Fold this protein.
Amino acid sequence: MISASEILEQLGQLLAGRMSLDAFEDWFVSIRQDIHKHADPEVKELAFAIDNVLSQFDEDSARLRQALLEAVFAAKEPSLFMNRYGDPSAIPESNAECAELMAS
């Protein structure tokens, strides 16, 4: 099963100029085929973000590389709507519970 670090390693090779876009796309297609069946959510989100960018460009360019970087950062960045426990509920994070315990 593919990991996010493996995808980022290959993408890093592309962005550093050590791999051609064609070689990256060949590798990426080989791992993407079954990613929806076997990968964890983080890997799926990363792969789908990369796939989305690749589908918007016909050839290698600085704009493609910038778009790939932006897609990776967006996929790896925790949602602004998540609290530190990953829960998107409306429960605010604070030390109010601690203050209530200290008051009693």
Notes: The two ends are 51 Å apart (CA to CA).
